[in-house]
Each structure stands twice: as structure tokens, then as C-alpha cells.
Amino acid sequence: MDIAILRTAAADASQPQYTKLEYAALLRGARAVTYACLSDHPQAAETTFRDLPQRPLSAVVQMPNVDLLAVPTPASPELREFLMRSGWPARRLAFFGDDRSGALAQFAQGRYLVHRESALRESGLHQQRHAFEVQGVGIEDIPPAHPREARLAITSRVLEACLRARATAPAEGPYVVGQNWGRFLQATRPRFYEALSSADVEAMEALLANCFRNELTSGILGGRPAYDAFAAAGAGCAEGLRQHFNVWRHSVSHVDVHRLGFPPVGNPYGVWLDCVLVHANTMLNDHRASVVRDLVGHVDHPIVAEIGGGYGGFGRQWLMLDAPGTYVDFDLPENLIVASHFLASAHPDKRILLFDEPSMRLDLEVLRQYDLVLMPHFMLPRLAEASVDVFMNFISLSEMSASTIHEYLAQIERVTRGYFYQENLLDNGEGYEFYPVSVFPPMPQFRKLFSTPSRWPFFSASSPAHSHVEQLSIRADLEVERYLTAAANSLPSRSAEETFA
Ligand SMILES: C[S@@+](CC[C@H](N)C(=O)[O-])C[C@H]1O[C@@H](n2cnc3c(N)ncnc32)[C@H](O)[C@@H]1O
Questions:
Q1: Does residue 321's CB lie within 6 angstroms of at least one atom of ligand 1?
Q2: Whether the CB of 398 sits within 6 Å of ligand 1
Q3: Residue 160 pLDDT exceeds 90
């Protein structure tokens, strides 16, 4: 919804009314596109106001894209009469100054996600608006990007790596799949295990080609039940996306929804936003990737590693940010195959190392030859000491067994020379009974930089479902020269002038 705001002498005397109206509108998806000025206003000749075009009311009436004229301050009977005579039908008038809740309900029919960027100039505070159009729920089938032969070739490659990993996985010790995930996978993925046991490439390809809507993403994006719930929620999904957008836009260094679009792999679903298909979960991964990029995007060939990367959401956003270096993911073979297929299909130009055999070298010389290194979890001890700039774990360690958590944190201490960034359980929510971070073993080599409840509604401290913590720790003996000196300042950060250019 595009709105015009009426500029009146009364509202000029109370600037906050404009601020309140603009902000209330943008939060609900209505985009302010112009100010409309009455001809007897002392500043009627101005062509801009509050960084928006200012036009005579008579011109705004002619603008086909303006859905609503909003009046900031109480309107006298004379003004109402005048507006009607000017050609505005009553249903396209929003009397914010007289009936705030009525106006808010009108704004709520808006079709944009709006972000503002501010700059302080000599003339005062200026704001530029970026509006992204919500074009509807995207649940229609998304045809795959590659022809069938290419898809079979990718599936064959990732299936072979998965079969090799399962054949060599340890049968005892901390690398045995924990009870939670072991039982869960067996219970939710019957067709997957069937295709795996017969090494059936065609059957596996069919599953991977639809992975976002079937059992292959159980536990990592909710699988079929999450898709069904999304499809049933209809327009409510767009509202959920708006809540996430309002967190995401204030959490990342550069707000552009276009990098959030799902690639045509695995039959994804979401909300169409400015012609790209966006799922709220992508905003979480994009925020994480932005944080990591801010931490080490400037260092020479950073190695960023994750345990439990799920379907590959972090890896995808890392690549969409054009981040340098190598991304390494360690995960259970059952989920690693999904991530490997997703990332290899979406980024066929990237150099990807998959599992071959347990004695593979994972030292800096090898890692640096690849953009992505996707390994089964039990390869973690093969990672060279002090090779990783940022180690990450999101919504994952808390779900493992105590001995595995112990082993993984010890390994993270051994291999990480920069930062440890995690989101794990803060407190058990209803029906979620795993290990909170407060019982994780200490990491004597690290110092906590910050620890805060999750910013995302579903995972926040007030969520009844799961409460997570966002935590960043830094190596006590961190190489200051590598991470924090002049080079760090050379990270491309946008000035206000660039922002408004
Ligand atoms: C809830 S998913 C989270 C996925 C992703 N990090 C996210 O935040 O969306 C948990 C992840 O932990 C992985 N995981 C569970 N047990 C594991 C283990 N013993 N070793 C490595 N990864 C494990 C799962 O395979 C899955 O990818």
C-alpha cells in the first residue's frame, strides 16, 4: 500500500505526528511515497518534505498508485469536507489524528516490508526508505534449476559420500549419533533409509528434489509437517515474515532482501518478496553469516567451521554475502547429504570437498583449495590445530549427548584460533528437554564477549517453545594482528553519503 501524508500547518507545529504516522505505517507495510500539501500552506511551494516529494493535493489526487491519504492531526469538519470535494473517496482517507486504531487497521493492509536508513546532515536527520514488496505466499512447485542428467550426477556424488561415511562411522564413543537424533531420524525418514540401503540414485534424487516438503528436512526445517502448516496458514505467513524482517533489518550490516532468495533446489517454499522466495529461517542464517563476515571477512582466507549446519542454510548465506575463504560443515551423514546436495546444486561453480575416506587430511593447505568442505561429524578430529577463524554451532549442541558435547567443545578449543559463536539452549521450553549452555563444560582458552537471549521471536526468552542464547567467545591468546588491527578497519562499511547516494 502506498500512502500520501497530508501536510498541514497544525501537523507542522507538532512534527512528532509525522514521525509517528510514518513509523506506524511502515511497521504495518504501508509505504509513504509523498506529502500532499494544501495550497494555502505557507510552504506550499516546497518540492520535498521529510526526504519525500511534496506535491499539491490536487496533483496527489491524480496519482494512480496512491491508495490512501493519511491525515496526521485531528481534522476539522471543514478539512474533511474539503478533502471529499478534492476527489478523495472516504474509504481512501485515514484519519490518524482522530481515529488512530482505524488508521492502523487501514495501514495493516499494506503490501511492503519497509526499512529506513538514517543520516545526520547539517540540515538535520534525513531518512531514506527502502520498500520491498510482499507479493504473496509461495507454495507452488518450484522447478529445479538443472536438467535431469546434471541432477542425477550431483545426487550420485553426494550419495556416494554419504554411503562411504555411514560405512566408516565409529560404532562407539562420542561420535556415535546421540539417542535424540538417532531415534528421530529413524522415525521420520523411512523412504530415505530405503533409498540409502539400495543405493538407489533415482529414488534419492526424487527425495532431494523435493526435500523442503518431505522427510529429508525433518528436524532441520520441519519437513512435511512444517510445509503443511505453512501452506495452511496462508496470508498469516507474510505476517510472520514481517516480524522476522523487523529483527533481521536491524541485525545485519547491509539490508537487501535479494540475497535471501531460495535457489530453485529442493522445491522450497516461502513468501514472494520483490520477486525472490524468502523463508523466515533464511533471515536467521543471513544474520549469522553477516556477524561472521563482520568478524573475519577482512582476514586472509578465513576458515569458518560449523557443526550441525542442517540443510546448508548458513553455507548458502555465507556464499550469498560473497564471503571469502572456506566454509567447513561437520554433520551427521543423513543431514550432510541434504546440505551437500543443496549447496552443490545452488552453487555449481564452487569448489566442494566431500568425504572420501577417514584418513583424509583436513589441514590448512587442503582446506584453502576449496570454497566448501562438507564432512561427516566424525572427521572433526582430523581438522588441524588452530586452523579455524570462527567456529559455529547453532541450535545443535544442546540436542546431543553429554559426552558428545564434551568432546566437541574440546575439539573446538583445539582447532579454533579466533572466535566461538553459538546459539544453544538457554532454558528448556515446553516439550524441549535438552542440555542448556549453563551445563556445558568450561572452555578455559576462551573468554565470553557477550551472551544474550535470542533476538528471534520463536527462540526468544519469552517463547514458550525454545529459548536460546546467542553467545560469542574469543580466544584468550587471540592473534590481535590478524583480527583486530588496521586490516580490520578496512572492512567495507558504508558511509551515510554512500547510503543515500
Ligand atoms: C536443529 S538442527 C539445526 C540446524 C542449523 N544449525 C540451524 O540452526 O538451522 C541440529 C543439527 O545438529 C546436527 N547434529 C545432531 N547431532 C549431531 C552430532 N552428534 N554431530 C554433529 N551434528 C549433529 C543435526 O544433524 C542438525 O544438522
A1: no
A2: no
A3: yes
Structural domains of the chain sorted by starting position, each given as residue range(s) with its CATH number in brackets? 2-110 (3.40.50.720), 148-484 (3.40.50.150)
Ligand 1 contacts CB of residue 309 (under 6 A):
yes
C-alpha–C-alpha distance, residues 169 and 47, integer Å = 70
DSSP 3-state assignment of 427?
A: strand
For the stretch 28-63, pLDDT in tens is 889 999 999 988 899 999 999 999 999 999 899 888
182 CA to centre of ligand 1 in angstroms: 11
Residue nearest to atom 4 of ligand 1 (CA): 310
Q: Is 335 in the pocket of ligand 1 (CB under 6 A)?
A: yes
Can you tell me the mean pLDDT for 309-337?
97
Distance between Cα 328 and ligand 1 center (Å): 14
Whose CA is closest to 242, among 141, 107, 126? 107
Q: How far is 303 from 315, CA to CA, in rounded Å?
A: 12
Residue 328 in contact with residue 367, Cβ under 8 Å? yes
The pTM of this model reads 0.90
Q: Sheet containing 467-475: which strands, arranged edge to edge?
A: 352-354, 372-376, 326-331, 303-307, 388-394, 416-427, 467-475, 446-453
The pLDDT of residue 465: 79
75: left (phi over 0), alpha (psi -120 to 50) or beta: beta
> How many residues does the structure list for the chain?
501
